[in-house]
Amino acid sequence: MSQLSEAIRQQAALWAVKMAERSLTDDEERAMAAWREADPQHADALIQAQQLWLMLGTLPRATPAAREADGPSATVVPLPVPPAASVRPRWRSWATAAVVVLASLPVLLMLPDAWLRWQADYYTAAGEIRQVTLPDGSRVDLDSRSAIELHFNAGERRVTLLSGNAWFIVAPLSSRETRPFRVEANGGVTQALGTQFSVDLDGSGADVAVHEHSVRVSYKGQSLVLDEQQGARYADNRLTRRPVSPAQFAWRRGWLIIDGLPVGEAVARINRYQSQRVIVVNPALRKRTVSGAFALKEPARAVETLRQTLGAKQMTLPGMTLLY
To answer: Could you tell me whether strands 238-243 and 222-226 are parallel, antiparallel, or unpaired per DSSP bridges?
Structure first.
């Protein structure tokens, strides 16, 4: 999908939100009509956005674009207006975001995985966990939705962790192998001084845990040496020591452990293990904290447990589940 068509979808979503919330002003009606008539794609995108609002149950009346699309002989049954006008503002911020997200669904579901596959030397799909052997004999256990890129040359053995989690069992230095082994992730570099360590990549930084011997972690001019059963996190220009948590590598035994995480982070972790993406569209729900242990082979059960715990409603769409 091009950037232009993505912009059209988002503009259509914004018009749909405005028309659902209130009557347009005369100037807005003219602006919306001009935008809709400027390109046939605009009218199609607006109708799709309004249909998404109908699916969410937040469009209180038939709109001009929908009536025009149905034709003069169509019968339009308005949805009931909520009895308390004060309810609607609570929906506005996250429901607007939901429509924009839904309008962008093909991009959200396809582009990230396609980009990783193009970049990576080794890649795991949703729900796949496997071990790979590198050219030097080192082994890497890759968590679901993880990807690495290799940069081996005469001077070093460098691995870039592009996504997810990886557990490294490094072929040690010897008279035949003198190149240092380094893992780069989110602007930090972990150099093996022993044999086994793991790196867990997230959106803002990375967690490093040492399972055997030691490593040196370097980030933004800072450096730490970690020994066995020690860990560190780097993010936001800071490198700090932190305890090693079993949750960091429970995936190797087929479990996902969530310990006091915000719902938004918990859902992001669950999404690593299934192709059906879960999105929490209500900001108040995303901020609540949850804990639990879930079998990786049953991510749908984890989602249902989470929904019940939160008392949330659920809507299932192709490729996406909304919690609100």
So the answer is: unpaired
pLDDT in tens, 56-65: 443 333 344 4
Q: Select from 231, 249, 267 the last residue of a domain.
A: 249
The beta-strand segments (E) located in 17-156 are: 122-123, 130-133, 139-142, 147-152
Average pLDDT over residues 252-280: 90
Q: How far is CA 241 from CA 15, 220, 234, 248, in A?
A: 48, 15, 9, 15
- Which of 202, 223, 249 is where one domain is finished? 249
| Token representation of residue 180 | 């240092």
Determine if residue 118 is left, alpha or beta; phi over 0 gives left, psi from -120 to 50 gives alpha, anything else beta: alpha
CATH number, domain with residue 274: 3.55.50.30
For residue 132, what are its two tokens? 């790979």
Q: How many domains does the chain have?
A: 3
For residue 29, what is the enclosing H or E element?
Answer: helix 26-37
